[in-house]
């Protein structure tokens, strides 16, 4: 546990040593889905706080993510969640939509961040000092916390969508391109929640 703690807090601690206190982690959820919005979250945690169960949201069960969502939002200095709709995704492409969701999530933070740690290759379009980190949700606690907030928020949205479109099974696959989801699209056609710019009927290859 001690080694894992050092790994997950190493980036934050290095920034703290430079006098930077309000560090926001930023991550998105739903980039590769065929349906539903792309969500992003930003969160600032108290300096030195260690949440031992926080990890990349993809490594956690749905129940554990819900538990950690509650824990993170209770202790966070500030947090925000934003979503970009499928029609905007189709208009500007998923890359720009994801960055815009991140920008909107960061803009909700009060007090504002002094520095951003961002999951992925690209910076958020804001005039805030920041560092994009590939697989940052596995190397930074505050990015992992943001990944949990984004994932839980999006999953909740897809659960609600499932009640409106019960034949598509959104509560199971959350809009990802599973064989069952693609078969439903072939049989029933896309819903208004589907991203028309994506290859909705393409064969699943991985």
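Sequence proposed for the structure above (206 residues):
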């Amino acid at each position: 546990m001690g080694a894992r703690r050092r790994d997950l807090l190493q980036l934050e601690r290095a920034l703290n040593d430079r006098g930077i206190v309000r560090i926001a982690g930023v991550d998105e959820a739903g980039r590769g889905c065929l349906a539903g919005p792309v969500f992003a979250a930003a969160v600032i945690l108290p300096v030195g706080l260690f949440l031992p169960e926080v990890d990349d949201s993809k490594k956690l069960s749905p129940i554990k993510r819900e538990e950690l969502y509650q824990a993170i939002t209770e202790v966070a200095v500030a947090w925000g969640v934003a979503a970009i709709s499928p029609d905007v995704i189709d208009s500007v492409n998923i890359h720009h939509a994801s960055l815009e969701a991140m920008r909107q999530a960061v803009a909700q933070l009060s007090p504002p961040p002094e520095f951003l740690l961002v999951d992925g290759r690209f910076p958020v379009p804001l005039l805030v000092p920041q560092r994009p980190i590939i697989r940052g949700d596995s190397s930074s606690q505050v990015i992992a916390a943001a990944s949990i907030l984004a994932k839980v928020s999006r999953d909740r949205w897809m659960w609600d969508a499932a009640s409106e479109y019960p034949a598509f099974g959104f509560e199971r696959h959350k809009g990802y391109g599973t064989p069952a989801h693609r078969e439903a699209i072939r049989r029933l056609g896309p819903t208004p929640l589907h991203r028309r710019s994506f290859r909705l009927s393409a064969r699943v290859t991985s």
